[in-house]
Design a protein that fits this description.
CATH architecture: 3-Layer(aba) Sandwich
Order of helices and strands: EEEHEHHEHEHHHHHEHEH
Strand content: 5-15%
Radius of gyration: 19 Å
Largest sheet: 8 strands, mixed
Distance between the termini: 36 Å
Shape: globular
CATH superfamily: Alpha/Beta hydrolase fold, catalytic domain
Strand order of the largest sheet: 1-2-4-3-5-6-7-8
Number of helices: 11
Structural class: alpha/beta
CATH topology: Rossmann fold
Number of strands: 8
Length: 311
């Protein structure tokens, strides 16, 4: 469904009942996807596990991705030039910022009349979730930052093979070429310790590309990420209970990036997963869900206790 959030049109999907049999509102889990990815990229096993635990799950397409509003009028950035400016410490000029994207997510909550949510973000989505916790602490019941980064300068860069895959382009403008390019990228950055069935992966890639394909939006999102220089210092302001999850074999966002995120957020707990790269492979989801569900339940109980004490 489409809703207006932060002044733009956003595509949103919900899973699980919003309230229980007694009419009590269920805790909300807001899922935020990463760079160029769509809400359909969230594995059904992850969503089902959250619903089975009694949560109301909300997903959405970030701006410039999927079926949410695109920003083509802002032009197509030159990634090589923007990357050079970042390395030299020069100011970049994104079409929008990650803070804008955090405001989009908060706008989705407003549109659905959700006052507070447990926010779970992967990769760029983790960065957006971090900004939500900084800017609107009363709206974030807990934070889970998965395969993401603090964005601090000096952290290890992606492995060269991952960088080449991210900056590569399809062989031509056909859908078949886009599918092959995406398959190659996902295999390159995926989890070496957890198998993913190739036919299943191809089916998911095809589904996503048939739903929407917008490479210029990915480029604008990339510039928003590299332009986000104020977040490292801002992470100290996060008060929400925080879980940081990172793969030890991540070739795109190295483990040190997750470790640095956890160090910058007071009380954050770091969970590392052997063999996990930069994806949500079935085996990764199986390892991820127990600590994630425990984290959200713990934060829910703590919040309920605080509310009861305030009455």
């Amino acid at each position: 469904m489409k809703i207006r959030a932060n002044g733009i049109m956003m595509e949103v999907e919900t899973s699980g009942a919003a309230s229980d049999a007694s009419g009590q509102a269920r805790p909300v889990v807001l899922l935020i996807m990463g760079l160029g990815m769509q809400l359909v990229a969230w594995p059904s096993t992850l969503i089902d596990a959250l619903v089975d635990e009694g949560f109301h799950v909300v997903r959405f397409d970030n701006r410039d991705a999927g079926l949410s509003q695109h920003f083509d009028a802002a032009g197509t950035p030159n990634l090589l030039w923007e990357g050079l400016k970042y390395k030299l410490g020069w100011r970049t000029k994104p079409a929008y910022t990650l803070q804008d994207m955090a405001a989009d997510a908060l706008g989705v909550m407003d549109g659905l009349q959700i006052s507070r949510a447990h926010v779970v973000g992967v990769s760029m989505g983790g960065m957006i979730a971090q900004w939500m916790a900084v800017l609107s602490p009363d709206r974030v019941a807990s934070l889970a930052s998965i395969m993401s980064s603090s964005g601090a300068r000096g952290l290890p860069p992606p492995k060269p093979v991952a960088t080449r895959a991210m900056l590569g382009r399809p062989a031509n403008n056909s859908k078949a070429a886009a599918i092959e390019h995406t398959m190659k990228l996902l295999k390159t950055i995926g989890s070496p310790g957890f198998a993913t069935d190739e036919a299943e992966l191809r089916a998911r890639v095809t589904l996503a590309l048939e739903r929407a394909y917008h490479p210029r939006g990915i480029m604008r999102q990339m510039v928003a990420v590299v332009s986000d220089t104020r977040r490292p210092a801002a992470l100290a302001r996060i008060a929400a209970p925080t879980l940081v999850v990172h793969g030890k074999a991540d070739p795109l966002v190295p483990l040190a990036c997750g470790q640095d995120t956890a160090k910058r957020i007071a009380g954050a707990r770091l969970e590392t997963i052997d063999g996990m790269g930069h994806d949500l492979a079935p085996g990764v989801v199986q390892r991820l869900m127990p600590p994630l569900i425990a984290h959200i339940h713990s934060a829910s109980r703590s919040l309920a206790s605080q509310q009861a004490a305030a009455v």
